[in-house]
């Protein structure tokens, strides 16, 4: 009995498989020819578009063809009746149409235009700077700004940093880089404005205070410069230039004693600051300290024998003999 059941089952399976094949192939053997072109909305042929012909009734079977370099496709040997035709191409919106194919007469060509697919937006990559998420675009702008600043291309650096500022308006370091870029461009008013914004965002940023002092003194704003410099811890001041600038401004105001004090600080920090000795010599001459002035002039010439004030220094030394 077991053998008989197994033997009877085989023809039944074979019959079903044959029926499925026959059903799948029932669209073949006709005489209908269908053809057409697939183009873009601009009328340009779409090469390699996939055209899928499927019976609208019965088993959803049918052939697939692709378009040639002219966007043309064709198929011969279909049975007549209702057909669905799907058109697909990378970068375009898929389209489906329904047609009635006839075997006894020529079927009109099918002209199809596909609309461009909307571009798929990639998710914005986010990075972290100072504990804040930023986009890849902002990170790239900062990197470009850093490269430009390193190459002394200050306007390009500023433009990139300003672009990044849209996403990072409270970042003190970024504000400082914009200030530095403006400083490099010689735009002191804008530079000090951004340096002060950086100081407001980070009151402990001694670099911002240092830059504010330098900028204010260069702009001739003695009190603003001294105030900013007074907030910088003395151990953080590594060069004598700020005190040199204060000394110059005080000397110009005929405040020789205060100027000498500032210049003493400058030279204590930076003993090889040649200009400091020359300006201090001038202040000491105002204070009638001729011996000290003479020593400063000699030190200046020792450090800068061909400096911009070397000629005047030699003439002053002659007058002090």
How would you describe this structure to a colleague?
The structure is a single chain. The protein is of the alpha+beta class and 321 residues long. It has three domains: 26-114, Immunoglobulin-like; 125-237, Tetratricopeptide repeat domain (Serine Threonine Protein Phosphatase 5, Tetratricopeptide repeat, Alpha Horseshoe), CATH 1.25.40.10; 250-321, Tetratricopeptide repeat domain (Serine Threonine Protein Phosphatase 5, Tetratricopeptide repeat). It has helices at residues 2-24, 136-150, 154-165, 172-185, 188-201, 206-218, 222-230, 241-252, 256-269, 274-286, 290-303, 310-319; strands spanning 28-40, 50-55, 64-66, 72-78, 81-88, 95-101, 110-114, 126-129, 132-135. The protein has a four-stranded antiparallel β-sheet with strand order 3-2-5-6, with no helix packed on it. Strands 4-1-7 form a three-stranded mixed β-sheet, with no helix packed on it. A two-stranded antiparallel ribbon has the order 8-9. The chain is rod-shaped and about 125 Å long. It starts with a helix and ends with a helix.
């Amino acid at each position: 009995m077991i053998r008989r059941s197994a033997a009877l089952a085989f023809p039944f399976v074979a019959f079903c498989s044959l029926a499925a094949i026959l059903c799948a192939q029932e669209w073949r053997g006709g005489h209908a020819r269908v053809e057409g072109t697939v183009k873009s909305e601009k009328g340009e042929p779409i090469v390699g578009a996939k055209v899928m012909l499927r019976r609208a009734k019965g088993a959803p079977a049918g052939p697939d063809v692709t378009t040639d370099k002219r966007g043309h496709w064709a198929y011969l040997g279909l049975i007549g009746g209702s057909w669905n035709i799907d058109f697909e191409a990378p970068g375009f919106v898929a389209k489906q149409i329904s047609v009635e194919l006839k075997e006894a007469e020529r079927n009109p060509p099918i002209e199809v235009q596909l609309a461009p697919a909307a571009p798929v937006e990639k998710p914005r990559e986010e990075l972290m700077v100072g504990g804040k998420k930023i986009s890849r675009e902002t990170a790239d702008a900062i990197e470009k700004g850093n490269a430009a600043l390193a190459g002394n291309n200050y306007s390009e650096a500023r433009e990139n940093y300003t672009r990044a500022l849209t996403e990072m308006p409270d970042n003190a370091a970024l504000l400082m880089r914009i200030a530095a870029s403006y400083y490099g461009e010689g735009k002191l008013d804008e530079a000090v404005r951004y340096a002060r914004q950086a100081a407001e965002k980070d009151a402990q940023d001694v670099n911002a205070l240092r830059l504010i002092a330098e900028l204010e003194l260069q702009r001739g704003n003695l009190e603003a410069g001294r105030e900013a410099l007074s907030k910088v811890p003395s151990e953080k001041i590594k060069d004598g230039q700020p005190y040199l600038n204060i000394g110059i401004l005080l000397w110009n105001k005929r405040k020789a004693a205060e100027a000498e004090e500032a210049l003493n600080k400058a030279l204590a920090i930076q003993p090889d600051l040649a200009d400091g000795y020359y300006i201090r010599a001038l202040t000491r001459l105002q204070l009638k300290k001729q011996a000290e002035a003479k020593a400063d002039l000699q030190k200046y010439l020792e450090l800068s024998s061909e400096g911009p004030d070397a000629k005047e220094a030699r003439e002053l030394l002659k007058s002090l003999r």
